[in-house]
Amino acid sequence: MNTAIKEQARFDARLSKEQKEFFEKAAYLGGFRSLTDFVILTVQEKAKEIMKEKEQILASERDSQIFFDAITNPRKPSKTLKSAYEDYNAFVSTQKND
Question: Any idea of the CA torsion for 26, 29, 34, 36, to the nearest 10 degrees?
Fold first, then answer.
């Protein structure tokens, strides 16, 4: 039998009695098996949300930088782009004459 064993780590937190009771009630009302399950799943969901938001911000910043670089330091048009431009101009000029 070849099963992968996940390495585990422990996480301890101190909280007030009121917080613990509040979290236990939320776990119970939410249908979680235990306070531990509630905490792990809730924190995991929040962590994913934060990571996704941060990744979107970073992607947006990269996109902005790429766009800014393209505007301030444009490349010379390639032969293909020049050819497409000429084809477009030829097409537009024939449409004007019709």
Answer: -30
Nearest-CA neighbor of 43 among 65, 59, 27, 22?
A: 27
Grade residue 19 by pLDDT with cuts at 50, 70 and 90: very high
* E-assigned strand segments in the chain: none
Give the phi and the psi of residue 14 in degrees, each rounded to 5. Answer: -100, 135
Question: By C-alpha distance, which of 18, 60, 20, 57 is closest to 36?
Answer: 20
Tens-digit pLDDT profile for residues 48-86: 999 999 999 888 988 888 998 889 998 899 999 999 999
pTM for this entry: 0.57
Q: Tell me if 56 sits within 8 A of 66, measured CB to CB.
A: no
Q: Could you say which DSSP state residue 33 is in?
A: S
Separation between Cα atoms, residue 25 and residue 32, nearest integer Å: 10
Structure tokens at 12: 């301890």
